[in-house]
Amino acid sequence: MTLQFHPLRETFGARVTGADLKSGIGAAEVEAIEQAIATYGVLVFGQQPIGDDEQQAFIQQFGPPVVTRLKEIASGHPHFYDISTVDDEGNPIPESSARGMYLLANLLWHTDGSQNQPPIRLTALHARVLPDNPPNTEYADMRAAWDALPASRQRELEGLQVQHSILWSREQIGMKASDFSEETLRERQPVVHPLVRLNARTGRKSLYLASHASHIIGRPLDEGRALVQELMAHATQPRFVYSHAWQRGELVMWDDSWTMHRATPYKGSQPRQMRWCGVRELEAV
Question: Is residue 118 part of a domain?
């Protein structure tokens, strides 16, 4: 199997050809993908007719799979969950329901798992069922956003620490602490991550942001939140964003350490079902 990577933008996003994830990949392909995702951030594998076992076999070669702690899907895999407009019985998910509100938060710019410690490193999303006109997913290049900052601004930001919290991100779409179980509140305490991360493979720096990013440690709450929002707005300018138009059977993989992403609104009646999985960092950041 010979993988090739075709840039979608000059330095961000690439389409992968030569991949057959149904047959599986070996060590050489894993290393090629690792290098490519460190280079491009987002990789698009076109037309991959895989099931749960193949998706599991693929993702687990890149690190410890994330246990979602949500209801397992029918196949019994605890490392998946569905980003879907319908429930397990095919009924539309009301936006006002707990699951609907939780999924609504995907419309916010976010980084998967930044509210965890250690956080999520890589995410893979497989398009199982798509409507005729599926909504795009947008990806922001936080490495380019960092590079675009003046050197004086970069010096001000390096060394800052940010608190990330699932409650803060969900508060932004109208949820309250009372909407979560006591177990969830106990297990998903706020965590702290650096505002600026260094990619060990490429040696390049990036911002590390998300809708989960609440405030700057050691600064007044309002001031810290204002800085986070300022940097979020900077990092999501159109010049830093790739908008992916989905096709059935595609698998898109991205590096959560230096990208953000968000869903775009969809109100159609045709179902949309994307199967999510990810792997976590080996150590805290």
Answer: yes
